[in-house]
Amino acid sequence: MDIRNKKLSDDEFYGIRKEILEQWPTGKDVDFDEAIEYHKSMPETKSFSRKLSAAKKERKTLIQPRAGVALIDEHIKLLQYLQDKGEADLLPTTIDSYTRQNRYEEAEVGIKESIHTQKSMLNGFPAVNHGVYGCRQIIENLDTPVQVRHGTPDARLLTEICYAGGFTSYEGGGISYNIPYAKDVPLERTIYDWQYVDRLTGIYEEAGVSINREPYGPLTGTLVPPSMSNAVAIIEALLAAEQGVKNVTVGYGQCGNLVQDVAALRVLEELTEEYLEKYGYEDVTVTSVLHQWMGGFPQDEAKAFAVISWGSSVAALAKATKVIVKTPHEAIGVPTMEANAQGLRCTKQAISLLADQELKSSALELEKAIIKGETCAIVDKTFELGMGDLALGVIRAVKAGVIDIPFAPSKYNFGKMLPARDHEGAVRYLNTAHVPLPQELIDFNRGKIEHRAKMEKRKASFQMVIDDVYAISKGRLVGKPK
Amino acid sequence: MDKKKLVIGVIGADVHAVGISILQHAFEDAGFDVTNLGVMVSQEEYISAAIETGADAIMVSSLYGHGELDCRGLRDKCNEAGLKDILLYVGGNIVVGKQPFNEVEKRFKAMGFDRVFGPGTAPETTIAALYEDFGMEAPKTED
């Protein structure tokens, strides 16, 4: 596999495409020209790119749930409820975990069992099995733009079907849907497969249909230092832009410290725009997404609403273009539609209260400078390792631990970098391992964690990290000793 | 006495990686010999690891809701592989959505699991069950 950060040629793309569409019988229903016509016949109000771009201009924060069930009719009912009773501005279709691993036979069993037991036996919507026309039923029964959300290392067939099916936004990327979502898939493979996804997006764009792309921001959702997730999001935005993507939403998962979170999201959007411009991608619209707390949740629903409100506050104060909403059932698993709508309405209320407020402080400026310094150090080193080629660079950077994602299942992740919270709950590097931070930023991180250790009268260690992972579900942000 | 041996892992197409490494840590601290298969473990992988290590228990984690589809037939496969009396535990968010736990427990016990644990179970709860099922005394803590 000869990977370069270069737009796939038509020969290369269409050569792969033929094989992709034969992976499952529903692939035969994908017809590009007909799909373009279908998209152009849709009302503009169903375009994700358009709605995001407008929200960015108005500095509005839109709300979006996660949701997906096994059967088409049930899925439509669920999304209609979230649209009408949850007041969602944007809708999702969350894909089930079998489809994410290309296990379409098992998804088929899940569909049959769901019909038989009259409850969804899958944790999402198996879009490949339902095919182009199944997807279109969803789009046609809603007034709101719908995005595909998943976690699929090889998403090429899924993308083909979903784009032809009328979805106008698509989550994922070659790093963010590999390292946190797979055990044994080489990074070369997913970078290459996501070039295909991005190129397909570019081809739609060139035909006059803008599809929004969203690198998956939170990664493992567990104590990921903001600069690490920011670096990955920026790199994926650059890789997407090379393939012709013009509408990108970069994401960040709430860590818990208000000032750090607002700083992280502001820096992410600013730096993405800067890097895109620096590397010659000038006509890309960049928006941002804040993911409410991705870690363990309290079981008590009242307490869960507090966590949801906290994330909503971050989104509003950071002026995120949209926020992905959690539900009061988070501790249990997949929520009921009522619980999902409650999470949405709670979020909408918090956002509307904070919409016109701006967070300004010297602490925020300091935090922005720290995150910016760390993020640029990682991204620039990645370019350097690839000798200017970002695709090569990222493969080498992950191998070398320059990009190192905590708690990731992938065996290709370096796994030596260790994060922990500081005394105020901001996520810092306890051990940078091979993450190439300048000495003064290493010292800054170390100082912050040593301060916590002193306050807690214990040594900084892995136990601190374990305590931090459990903390929120026990009602606290920092895992302090009893 | 030799340490009791556990095979642990997250079943199916599930990639939730955080909890399983914490469970490994907790079970080892509690005095067990732990083989952690990580995420996306198939039934066959649990069984061959159990045979290879001479395990006393297989501990199945599932966080993503497909537990019911993924766990079916595991007890039969254990029996066929000669692991007739091996202890089988399952825990996590093992079904899709909020369902009454006593019904979920009944369904999984009917599938042959000895113990079934719901969402948010603390490692100490599972450890106490292991001590009971192995007829072991809980080690005295130092403080």
Tell me the β content of chain B. 15-25%
The CATH topology name of chain B reads Rossmann fold
Provide the structure class of chain A: alpha/beta
CATH architecture of chain B: 3-Layer(aba) Sandwich
Count the DSSP helices of chain B.
6
CATH class of the largest domain in chain A: Alpha Beta
Largest interface: A-B, 39 and 25 residues
Domain count of chain B, please report it.
Answer: 1
From the N-terminal CA to the C-terminal CA of chain A, the straight-line distance is: 53 Å
GO molecular function, one term (chain B): metal ion binding
Organism (chain B): Blautia argi
Domain B12-binding (chain B): 3-141
Catalytic activity (chain B): (2S,3S)-3-methyl-L-aspartate = L-glutamate
Question: Keywords, please?
Answer:
heterodimer, A: 482 residues, alpha/beta, TIM Barrel, Glutamate mutase, C-terminal domain, four-stranded parallel beta sheet, 17 helices, 10 strands, B: 143 residues, Rossmann fold, five-stranded parallel beta sheet, globular
What's this, in brief?
The complex is a heterodimer of chains A (about 475) and B (about 140). Chain A is of the alpha/beta class and about 475 residues long.
Describe this structure in words.
The complex is a heterodimer of chains A (482) and B (143). By secondary structure, chain A is α/β, with parallel strands linked by helices. Helix content of chain A is 50%, strand content 9%. In chain A, the strands form three sheets. Chain A has a four-stranded parallel β-sheet with strand order 1-8-7-6. In chain A, strand 7, helix 12 (301-317) and strand 8 (322-324) form a beta-alpha-beta unit. In chain A, helix 10 packs parallel to helix 11 (258-278) and helix 10 packs across helix 14 (362-385). The longest helix of chain A is centred in the last third of the chain and has 24 residues, at 362-385. By secondary structure, chain B is of the alpha/beta class. Chain B has a single domain (5-133), classed as Cobalamin-binding domain (Rossmann fold), CATH 3.40.50. Chain B contains six helices and five strands, in the order βαβαβααβαβα. Chain B has a five-stranded parallel β-sheet with strand order 2-1-3-4-5, sandwiched between helices. In chain B, strand 1, helix 1 (18-29) and strand 2 form a beta-alpha-beta unit. The radius of gyration of chain B is 14 Å and the shape is globular. Classes of the chains: A alpha/beta (482), B alpha/beta (143). The interface between A and B is medium-sized, with 39 and 25 residues. Chain A: It catalyses: (2S,3S)-3-methyl-L-aspartate = L-glutamate. Chain A: This is Glutamate mutase epsilon subunit. Chain A: Heterotetramer composed of 2 epsilon subunits (GlmE) and 2 sigma subunits (GlmS). GlmE exists as a homodimer and GlmS as a monomer.
